[in-house]
Amino acid sequence: MNRSTRTIAQILGILLLTAVLSLFAYYIGSSFGKSIIIGTPIAFNDWQAHYKKLVYATGATGGTISLLWYLLARFGMKVHTSYDVGKRTLWGSLGGLMLIACVALPYAFANADATLKMGASIPLLFVALYAVIGYWIGSLFMTPAAYKYTPLGAEKIRASWGRK
Amino acid sequence: MEKHTKQCGRFLLAFFLCLFLGGCALPWENSQEMPITMPTDMARAEMETPAAIPVDVYWDATVSMQGYTTLAAGNVYRTLPDLLGDIGDSMGNVQFFRFGAEVMPLGGREYRKFSDASTYTELITAVHNAVDTADPNHLSVIVTDLFESDSDWSNVTKKLKDKYFAHHLSVAVIGIKNSFHGDIFDVGLNAQKYFYNSNDDPARFRPFYLILMGPEKKILEFIDLWKERQTIPNETQYLLLTENLTEGANDFTQLVVSEGIQNLYSNESLGIRDKRIKEFGINDQSAPAVLPVRFDYQPLFGTCPLDMDHLKTAVQAFSLSENGEWEPLDTNDDPKVEVSRSSDAPDSWNVTLTFQPEQTIKPDAMNFIHVSVFPDAKGYRLPDWVRAWNMPNVDVAPDQFDGSKTVNLLHVMESLKSTALAASHPALVNMNIIIDER
Amino acid sequence: MGYYFISIGGSGAKVMESLTHLCAAGLLPNKEKQQKLYVMAIDPDIGNGNLKRSSAALHCFTQFQDVSIGMDTPLFKTEVELAKPFIWNPAEHDKKLDDILSYQIYKGSPIGNLYEVLYTQEERNTFLNEGFRGRPSIGAAVLAKKVQLGDGTDGLRVDTAPWDKFSRLVHQDAKNGQTAKIFLAGSVFGGTGAAGMPTIAHLLRHTFRNYYDEGKVMIGGALILPYFAFTPSLSDQESYGIFASSENFLTNTKAALKYYALKDKDYHSLYFIGDDILSQVPNFSIGASTQNNDAHVVDLYGAMAAIDFYQSTPENRKEYSYIAHARENTFQWTDFPDICMDDQTQVSFKDRFIQFTRFIFSYVHLVKPVLGDLASGKIPSYKYPWFLDYLADLNISDTEVRNFNEYTETFMRWLQQIETSENHRTLELIRKSSFDANPASIVPDQFSSCAYDENSEVTIHELWYRLSERTCADMENTKGFGRFLRLLYDCCAKEKEDAR
Fold this sequence. Notes:
- The complex is a heterotrimer.
- Chain B has helices at residues 2-25, 80-91, 127-133, 153-163, 216-229, 357-360, 384-388, 409-423; strands at 55-60, 94-99, 103-106, 139-144, 170-178, 181-187, 192-197, 206-214, 236-241, 256-257, 264-267, 277-282, 289-296, 311-320, 326-328, 336-341, 348-355, 366-375, 390-391, 406-407, 429-436.
- In chain B, the strands form five sheets. Chain B has a seven-stranded mixed β-sheet with strand order 3-2-1-4-8-5-9. A six-stranded mixed β-sheet of chain B has the order 11-12-21-18-14-15, with no helix packed on it.
- By secondary structure, chain B is an alpha+beta fold.
- In chain B, helix 2 crosses helix 5 and helix 3 (127-133) runs parallel beside helix 4.
- Chain C has two domains: 2-91 and 128-323, Rossmann fold; 350-499, no CATH class.
- Chain C is 43% helix and 13% strand.
- Chain C contains 18 helices and 15 strands.
- The longest helix of chain C is centred in the last third of the chain and has 28 residues, at 349-376.
- Chain C starts with a strand and ends in a 9-residue tail after the last helix.
- Chains A and B meet through helix 1 and helix 2 of A and helix 1 and strand 11 of B.
């Protein structure tokens, strides 16, 4: 596979992963929602319809942040010397941003939308899916070669596959 | 440069393709409109009734009714033809009939002759025929003194039960005290005839009755129009025998789910049109489900007063079979219903349903739970006026005959009440719950 | 064995230096590891600066040439064996001509008298530690004495090192059916080279005369003509006694060329290389370590001459070879011939040299600065995927690593000297502005365009990417440091990733 093909494949991989995680977020979150709305007059299907919008928004944010890391690593950051490499701070910052988004978006949506009653389980679910699996684990597998060991734990993971 | 443009194009195409695929995966439609109907046994009268309903008035034209037309003072009876015609026209169109042994329709404005004593020529009173003739889709009014030849009221109540109570229709009795001057026939075990003159003394007025048969709402509408247009202040009493015992529906159109609900969440994904049925979902199959509701007990006008210490509860569960029929489930006596007075207000009551999902409902199926709170026979009493207007069917001396009462009224009303209790199952609360476990 | 190189004197040593780098770049015509290059130096001036510098690169190369670089690559494909001792000094230490020729024995005799006529007092009494002082006559006499010339045997003293092993290897080649190609390089205008070039060639021919006649030994030579000049100060003239004088270079050359034209019958192929514009040597030196002239394009052509000789056969050899360059004061890639390999394939000198240069540049720029800190853990290794993939177990103090690091410095210095000219000559091979030596460094933005007449997409970033994403082409036969070098070399190839 040449580099262009690999690039496209990895970008598609990020988008596909985001889409799949959004599906999981929707269905698992919906099961959490059933317990969240108990005791409220909110009908589950209404809650679920509003929750879907939240999933779209968080999925789009997660996909964008993951894609941003990838595109920066692939096209944005150039190595000129042996000292402008690594970029783990940038990777970590984007991950932090993802974490914040996973917690902030659900509560922001809940504040703006009375139907979307929120519990702690939804942000935790988003953190697990989008931040941990989507961003972190996704970046372990889909980071351009020049920065392939930048994500935390990448060394150990790749060593376990025998590196290349 | 061209290669970069192609790569960008491929990238954008792939991006939007993924968005499209992702979007397709998420469900767009949340609710499925389903024509859910209640199990046949549980089905109550349709909430919606037609705006207009034909009114049929069956007039007892027997000679014993003559006495109501005689005196002028305190005479509601004379105004009755016009009044009933007017009310009937307001509610739809009105058709009058006279009956004795047979039922005969009256054309034009012949019904106005019922104000005249000469109209009353029939010798046999067959109310049962009027009941037979009555169309259950109409509001039927029988004007009578509640005398039935051969005293065969059990036949009448049976017909009322089969035709009305069993089909979620109601029967009401309006008793009006009216001046009377004439003969009263078939009194006592020896069927004696008495002459009775009430003069102008309202305490001596003799009651006649309007038996209303038809949809509860239309009966109530008639009663409202009657009360509105009734100008002569004769004593009037009402008895309504119907499924409902409270003002407003006692189902989920009016019931309020109170705090303390456990393991059940509200859902509207099935899009059930019948608002008396509420859809819930079970969060945890292994945990008990608790559904508390609150209602305010405001007795429906004319209904039998209830002894709230004699209430019974019943829970039935059904599951929808493959051929669309509701099949009863064996709940192992798991569901429990508690009724208690609320501390918030004297007329406020709490009903709490508790059940174990694993024992009560069927997994992987659509389930229907019906909860009813209803009075037992002891708790469902006739209003006091019935006893007050009752004269036992015994032989009495003429000077002890009280024409202001109706012979066997209590017997007749008790019979009607028992029939209504057995066939209509009047209930204080009807909770209809759908739980879709598919 | 196959290839033999003997550098004679300082000029020979400079040719040897150039040949070392071309050998490392895989520009010798042998198929990988099938031929060896045996190298020795002849110089009475053991401490000669030129010799020291050129042999430093060679010694470094021999220390790392055995890295497991794998098959099917030109990199380090020619194994080099150094003579032991590497430098053969025909004159002993602290000896004068009188001592070497045992004048005292012949004093007063006719031979002694002839000797006195032929050599000045000064020539006879000068210590020969710094070489033959630009006097071929001194060198010829010393060499003749040391190597049994004229006593009926006329051959090398093959019972002494390093000639013993030299002789053994040549015999082995002949027995194995290989042709031993012996190439000599030296100046014709100086002392050691002028004396040694004809003498050693003659000695070799006589030592291996049977093989020579059968065509199993070929002798070639690069005769370096004058290309530099120097002007000693008055004080230098007074303090140094006899020394080479650049005013005599052309005269000496003329005389030498006459000899080669009329008398020499020993060389199969001769290459004459010089420059009509003489480079001015800034600091005069009579010899020893201070005699350290910068590398010159003449040296490079001398090394190219050796390569041309090695790719020739007895049937297609050229007795006298000429080469021209297109523009008067400029040398371009087109002025250097392609190499014909043993299997008759043509290899572009330009492509291979550029790839090797880029290989060294990238090592110097990306790897060398951080390798030590990476190995010791001072720098987090996740930043350097290639380190984790290939060098995680590296011992930074391994001989191979240390010597390769040193070699890269020598290569950059040599390249800078080649590219720098003070006599209005320009060399348009590698852009001078793209790198620096002492210490070695490059200008990263010019990495992809460091070579003239070459459009390359191989930027530093592109190279980094290739290092991080590719696997070594020959995983089976490579390991350790060699595997990494192989990968780095392959990644420096010109074609773009997506062009494949």
